């Protein structure tokens, strides 16, 4: 069997709705490794947000921040931070709109405000607490992703930022990335390092930030719980995460015997 690389999203793909790893998913990932395949993560999360998960699953390669920070075997191979002058301007505009932001580096995240219900609810859905306040964190560190907290459709007020891409991930929060950023771009960097053909790249995902990834790879798999737009472009739709979706998917695709 040709060597493959399989990328997994985290929330709604590796983790179920309780933010737990189903036992069948652990088994599936180990089976892939036992068959000589590379297993990697492709997520919108920052590296510090899934460090425990990487240790638990013994995974050392990942695409984080939706493609802006890529690591191969624990070595950083690609970085695409947001420009500081853009973040300065974004902060001023968000202040006028009364929308809080969270700036995210590879090590930590800081909020532009103290306690805020939108931040508490959306970050709480990932089982994270409200970040500390440091309005000028972007001046101190490279920022690879910013979170904008606003109600649905309010992010349209930010469309004049042609150098930015906005992707909603929660009813109260939207990811802000460089306009050319995506999981697909991060995967290209890892594939280049692995010297692996696109046809041997697989990816599993469920959300809007997985669209480019599922479209780019040789075989794109949508979880049964995925958004409809992802299912429409996927090569294959597996069962939902809480119905052994990953194990079922790798078996149906004959990635393991």
Automatic annotation (TrEMBL):
Keywords on record: Hydrolase
Pfam families, sorted: Hydrolase_3
InterPro entries: Cof (IPR000150), HAD-like_sf (IPR036412), HAD-SF_hydro_IIB (IPR006379), HAD_sf (IPR023214)
GO annotation, cellular component aspect: cytosol
Signal peptide positions on this chain: none
Domain of life, per lineage: Bacteria
Entry-linked Gene3D superfamilies: 3.30.1240.10, HAD superfamily/HAD-like
GO molecular function, one term: phosphatase activity
Protein name, as recorded: Cof-type HAD-IIB family hydrolase
Organism field: Metabacillus sediminilitoris
């Amino acid at each position: 069997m040709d060597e493959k690389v399989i990328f997994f999203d985290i929330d709604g793909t590796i983790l179920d709705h309780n933010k737990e790893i189903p036992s069948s998913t652990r088994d599936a990932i180990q089976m892939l490794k036992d068959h000589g395949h590379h297993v990697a993560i492709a997520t919108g999360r920052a590296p510090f947000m899934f460090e425990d998960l990487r240790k638990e699953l013994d995974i050392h390669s990942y695409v984080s921040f939706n493609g802006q920070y890529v690591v191969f075997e624990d070595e950083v191979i690609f970085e695409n931070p947001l420009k500081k002058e853009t973040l300065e301007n974004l902060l001023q505009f968000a202040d006028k709109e009364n929308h809080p932001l969270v700036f995210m580096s590879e090590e930590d995240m800081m909020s532009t405000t103290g306690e805020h219900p939108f931040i508490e609810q959306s970050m709480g859905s990932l089982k994270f607490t409200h970040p500390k306040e440091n309005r000028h964190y972007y001046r101190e560190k490279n920022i690879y992703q910013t979170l904008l907290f606003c109600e649905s459709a309010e992010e349209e007020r930010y469309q004049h930022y042609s150098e930015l891409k906005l992707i909603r991930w929660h009813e109260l929060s939207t990811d802000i990335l460089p306009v050319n950023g995506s999981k697909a771009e991060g995967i290209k960097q890892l594939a280049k390092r692995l010297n692996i053909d696109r046809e041997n790249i697989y990816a599993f995902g469920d959300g809007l930030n997985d669209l480019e990834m599922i479209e780019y790879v040789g075989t794109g798999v949508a979880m049964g719980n995925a958004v409809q737009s992802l299912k429409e472009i996927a090569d294959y739709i597996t069962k939902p995460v809480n119905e052994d979706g990953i194990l079922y998917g790798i078996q149906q695709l004959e990635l393991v015997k």
